[in-house]
Every structure is written in structure tokens, then in C-alpha cells.
């Protein structure tokens, strides 16, 4: 299975996808066929904030065409925020798409989680992961969604997280646990590892990127069928 990734949205998240996907394939003992097409985080941010789904889908469709030409069998977006135009992109039918959002509901349920707190883009938090969670309740700091989303964007564009922004995000997670009853905090933004990796926030954390990577690695190994997981 030749997997394509639309990366660069942002660059740091793409690097982590590459690192963790190759490591997962190694653990499974399978060779990884992977091609990455570089996207543009700045146009993604503008279109996301404007809810310009068709415009962003057109940009991504061009990247998918390149991945298809490179021989990819399927593709994935390396940004949960980019999934705001997932349906519009999928309707263009360029390549089968493997969602990074769809597997999360089953993952949370398998862990026995009844309520999770979300950190990510403003849209991801306000829509509760695009309304795709059915078996687990999601909560967020709605009054702070715009400010937290801006903090996340700044980290994604910079490709690094300074101590002040790290404190803001760690504190937001703590308050969702203490005040909103979240049993775990979901890093629903693929650059949030920049803030959380190597830290002990004092509460359970689930990186949505890892769930997506595990599914892509299973595809690469032939452990799951593309028809069962692709949109």
C-alpha cells in the first residue's frame, strides 16, 4: 500500500507523522511506501478561518493529483484542522482519503472514556471534532476557543512552542479536567506535540496524531483493508 500525505500544514506535524509512521512500520516489520506533498499552512489558515471549504478543497485536490501521479493508493491530511473541508475534498474523488478524525470515536470508546477535553483549532474545539464523536462526549473551553485557537496557530506556523504558550495550553487542559470533568485531554491538533511532548501535565493526554498514524501503519502492513477505512 503506497500512502500519500499532504504535509506542510504545519511542517513540524509533518515531521512527526514521518517519524512515527516509519517507526510504526518498522515495529510491524513491513516496508513503508510513502510520498509527501507539501501544502501551504498560510492559505489553510485563511481558508479555515473564512470557512472557505471549496477553495481549500481545490488546493488539496491539486496536491492529491500529484500524489496519485506518484503512485499513491490513498492519502491523508497531516492536520486535523485541515479536515474542515474533508467532505468537499472527498467528493472530488481524486484519491481515497483516510480520515484522522473518524478513528477517534472508536479509540476513545475502546479506552472506556466517557468525556474528553479538546485542544486544537477554534473550529475543531467549537464543533467538537466536526460532530463526529458519537460514543464519547467532548468538552472544550468555549469562551476561550478563539484565543486558544490563535495560540495553536502561532505554534503551528512557528514550528516550535515557547514556555508561555506551553503554560497556556497545559493550563487549559488542566481546567477541562478539573472544571469540566474531562477524563483525558485530546491533542486534536497535530502540532500540539510541540507543547506536550516531554512534559508531565498531571492528567491523561491522547495525541490524535498517534491514532491516525497507527491506522496508516496498519494499512501499510495490509492488516486492514482500504475499503474499510477510506472515505
UniProtKB/TrEMBL annotation:
An MF annotation (GO) of this entry: amino-acid racemase activity
Signal peptide: none
Gene3D superfamilies recorded: 3.40.50.1860
Name under which the protein is recorded: Aspartate racemase
InterPro entries, alphabetized: Asp/Glu/hydantoin_racemase, Asp/Glu_race
SUPFAM superfamilies: Aspartate/glutamate racemase (SSF53681)
Originating organism: Rhodovulum kholense
Source species taxonomy: Bacteria, Pseudomonadati, Pseudomonadota, Alphaproteobacteria, Rhodobacterales
Amino acid at each position: 500500500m503506497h500512502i500519500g500525505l499532504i504535509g506542510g500544514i504545519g511542517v513540524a506535524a509533518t515531521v512527526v507523522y514521518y517519524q512515527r509512521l516509519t517507526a510504526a512500520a518498522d515495529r510491524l516489520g513491513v516496508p513503508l511506501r510513502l510520498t509527501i506533498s507539501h501544502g501551504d499552512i498560510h492559505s489553510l489558515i485563511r481558508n479555515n478561518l473564512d470557512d472557505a471549504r471549496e477553495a481549500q478543497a481545490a488546493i488539496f485536490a491539486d496536491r492529491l493529483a500529484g500524489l496519485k501521479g506518484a503512485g499513491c493508493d490513498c492519502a491523508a491530511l497531516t492536520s486535523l484542522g485541515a479536515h474542515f473541508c474533508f467532505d468537499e475534498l472527498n467528493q472530488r474523488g481524486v484519491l481515497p482519503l483516510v480520515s484522522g478524525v473518524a478513528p477517534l470515536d472508536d479509540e476513545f470508546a475502546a479506552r472506556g472514556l466517557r468525556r474528553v477535553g479538546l485542544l486544537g483549532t477554534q473550529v475543531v474545539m467549537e464543533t467538537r471534532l466536526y460532530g463526529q464523536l458519537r460514543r464519547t462526549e467532548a468538552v472544550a473551553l468555549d469562551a476561550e476557543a478563539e484565543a486558544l485557537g490563535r495560540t495553536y496557530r502561532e505554534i503551528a506556523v512557528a514550528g516550535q512552542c515557547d514556555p508561555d504558550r506551553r503554560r497556556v495550553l497545559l493550563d487549559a487542559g488542566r481546567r477541562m479536567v478539573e472544571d469540566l470533568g474531562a477524563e483525558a485531554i485530546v491533542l486534536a491538533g497535530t502540532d500540539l506535540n510541540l507543547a506536550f511532548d516531554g512534559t508531565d501535565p498531571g492528567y491523561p493526554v491522547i495525541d490524535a496524531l498517534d491514532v491516525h498514524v497507527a491506522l496508516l501503519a496498519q494499512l501499510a502492513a495490509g492488516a486492514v483493508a482500504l475499503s474499510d477505512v477510506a472515505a
